[in-house]
Amino acid sequence: MTKIPPLPQRTSIPGGVLDWASCVLGVITGVLDASRSRANSRVWELTCTDGTRFFLKIASTKASYDREVHAYRFAVPALGPGRAPRLQATDPDELAMLLTALPGEAVAPAVLDMNDHIRVHRQAGYLLRELHDRPVVPRGSVDVLAEVRARTASAGQGVAAAGDLLSHAEQELVLGLVRELPQLEGCPTAFVHGDAQEGNFLWDRSTGCAALLDFGQARPAVAVDDFVHLAVGPWVRYPRLRQMFFTGYRRELTDPERKVLPALAAMAAVDGLVQGVRARDPEITERARIALKLLADGVRW
Fold first, then answer.
1. Taking the C-alpha atoms of 287, 296, 227 and 252 in order, what is their torsion angle to the nearest 10 degrees?
2. Contact at 8 Å (CB) between 201 and 107?
3. N or C: which end of the chain has fewer CB within 10 A?
4. How far, in Å, CA of 7 to CA of 59, rounded?
């Protein structure tokens, strides 16, 4: 049987980090844990005396910290005012960032009518295209052949880690789909968000504006990476959202992207299955199961 380790306990804000935040912001009158369900998420909402809100985030790794700070400094400003948080201050020794707060609510837990849902996806497509077009990616900076090798190895490791969470047929399905990974060589490269999913889209009903959150995985990569979570989630349930996303994105999938997306979706589903069971999160587990079922039924994008 696949063994699921216990969840580590969350900790409060380290005293030195809170002191640093107070030096930057002034008197802090409120602290609210805003961490995600995953164990390595450490985010707090801070409220100042004038009611202004900020988010204090401690990155899980130095690499994640460096990626996020780089994105906020060199790519995010191009999205425009109110379309992403702004970096207020950093503490490299503690891997800590202070970010401005935006109005609105994350799309995933929000109850949106279909018109708002459509607007979110169209605007998300526009914002991701703006991010992808940033000239912060040096030409030739993505070694696609290395990506093919690394992702092929990762797929095998993911299947092994899942163990008996996957049936034999599901294992064969995933390993069969990843044979398309060499198609990555023909996929456009970009500066990607890296975790583009509805939980990282913010929707402000009062202004009708969407925003992007959480740039800890932003990096030079293949653009199709930013379509994977959406493809196995909301686009399956509501195909119109896919259409409106690519209307905002201003282009459709290329042929190589169409061929490789099921492989990336299968790998994401396996990772989601393992993470969902470890986190004891039935919603994540169910999404992964649905994605694998759809791929087994021949769904493609």
1. -140
2. yes
3. N
4. 18
Q: Which residue has the tokens 């800590």?
A: 96
Question: In Å, what is the CA distance from 26 to each residue of 23, 46, 95, 155, 176?
Answer: 6, 11, 20, 47, 56
**According to the model, what pLDDT value does residue 2 have?**
44
Torsion angles phi and psi, residue 96, rounded to 5: -105, 145
Residue 256 CB coordination number (10 Å): 18
SS (H, E, C) the chain: CCCCCCCCCCCCCCHHHHHHHHHHHCCEEEEEECCCCCCCCCEEEEEECCCCEEEEEECCCHHHHHHHHHHHHHCHHHHCCCCCCCEEEEECCCCEEEEECCCCEECCCCCCCHHHHHHHHHHHHHHHHHHHCCCCCCCCCCCHHHHHHHHHHHHHHHHHHHHHHCCHHHHHHHHHHHHHHHHHHHCCEEEECCCCCHHHEEEECCCCEEEECCCCCCEEEEHHHHHHHHHCCHHHHCHHHHHHHHHHHCCCCCHHHHHHHHHHHHHHHHHHHHHHHHCCCHHHHHHHHHHHHHHHCCCCC
Q: Which of 288, 289, 109 is nearest to 200 (CA)?
A: 109
pLDDT value for 142: 84
Query: Cα 81–43–124 angle (5° rounding)?
Result: 40
The pair of structure tokens assigned to 218 is 């932003």
Q: Which residues contact 139 (CB under 8 A, 6 or more apart)?
A: none
**Residue in 262, 263, 270 with CA at minimum distance from that of residue 162:** 270
CB proximity list for 259: less than 8 A, separation 6 or greater: 180, 183
How confident is residue 140, by pLDDT bands cut at 50, 70 and 90? low
Q: Does pLDDT of 250 surpass 70? A: yes
- Mean pLDDT confidence for 58-67: 96
> What is the model's pLDDT at position 111?
79
